[in-house]
Amino acid sequence: MSRNSTLVFAAMCIIWGIPYFLIRVAVGEISPVVLVFGRTAIGALILMPIVIAKGGLRGIGMRWIPLLAFAAAEIGGPWFFLSSAEQQISSSLAGLLISFVPLVGILIAPLFGNREVIGPLGLGGLALGLVGVSAIVGLDFHASGPTALIQMALVAVGYAVGPAILSRYLNGVPSVSVTGISLAACAVVYAPLAAMHWPREMPGGAVIVSVVVLGVVCTAIAFLLFFALIASIGPVRATVITYINPAVAALVGITILHETFTVGMGVGFVLVLAGSVLATRRRAPRGKAAA
Fold first, then answer.
1. d(C-alpha 116, C-alpha 283), whole Å
2. pLDDT, the chain, mean
3. Is the distance from CB of 181 to CB of 38 less than 8 angstroms?
4. For residue range 122-151, what is the model confidence (pLDDT) as tens digits?
5. How far, in Å, are 134, 220, 273 from residue 9 at the CA level?
6. CA 195 to CA 190: how far, in whole Å?
7. Which residues are within 8 A (CB) of 259 and not within 5 positions of it... i.e. 6 or more apart?
8. Distance CA 11, CA 4 (A)
9. Average pLDDT, integer, range 249-258
10. What is the model's pLDDT at position 223?
11. Alpha-carbon distance 198 to 196, whole Å?
């Protein structure tokens, strides 16, 4: 990678590793629906002018239904469930559980036309990942909060379904258009819900800063940087950041919020990463394998 690509890569590892900490701070005083509205509205206000200037609305054509489905699966649902879950679990645990997304992606891939058979190595990776998730949770659903764990499972499913919809139905639509319109659509949906749960008193400075940073840095700027990173080093190498973000989330949670980090969480994270690598490895063609 070039020096600029390396800097962008490092920035993305941090930028998408800190939202869990910021969400944890924000939901201490405001409702998850207010947080999601604030984040999506700020992101939309920044990205939609770019979309309009580039004529992105005309490029959607007849693909509004998959675009809205992507918005719900990738943003609207996961951001609410993640914010709600972090009212009960630590940001470290939430970040580590997100590392299970690549494995969920393997399981749902056949639903979106991917007929590639999962071989023994892939099945072993899935099994290893499940063991890793069990180690992260500690097999203590009561202590972690069963509702929160179910919500985190829905987050993982959403984050896996979103890219599948993007790849299958939105191929060719500019990424900034997909993101900007998705954020705007989610902001519109959450606006009335946020109005009903709007805080009676002005939230503290830390909460306001968290929401602004989530909307500006972790959403609008992050997506623009991610698009630039993909253009620079390719989509496959760019997704490596998803293996680093959970570690950053755990480190920030432990350092700043003084959250508990167990040996099981560390071992489980390593097992999930190893399982993801094994499960997502593409098998060589038969001719090449035979050679």
1. 9
2. 85
3. no
4. 778 778 877 887 777 775 554 557 889 899
5. 30, 16, 19
6. 9
7. 90, 91, 92, 93, 253
8. 11
9. 88
10. 86
11. 6
9 touches 233 (CB < 8 A): yes
**What is the DSSP secondary structure assignment for residue 74, as one 8-state letter?**
I
Q: Where are the domains of the chain?
A: 3-113+141-256
Judge whether residue 202 has pLDDT over 70: yes
Report the length, in residues, of the chain: 291
Name the 3-class secondary structure at 31. coil
C-alpha distances in angstroms, 115 versus 66, 110, 112, 279? 21, 5, 9, 15
Q: What does the alpha-carbon distance between residue 135 and residue 273 come to, in Å, rounded to a whole number? A: 13
Tokens 């659509």 correspond to: 185
Token pair belonging to 93: 């645990």
The secondary structure of 221-271 as a DSSP string is IHHHHHHHHHHHH-HHHHTTHHHHHHHHHHHHHHHHS-----HHHHHHHHH
Amino acid present at 66:
P
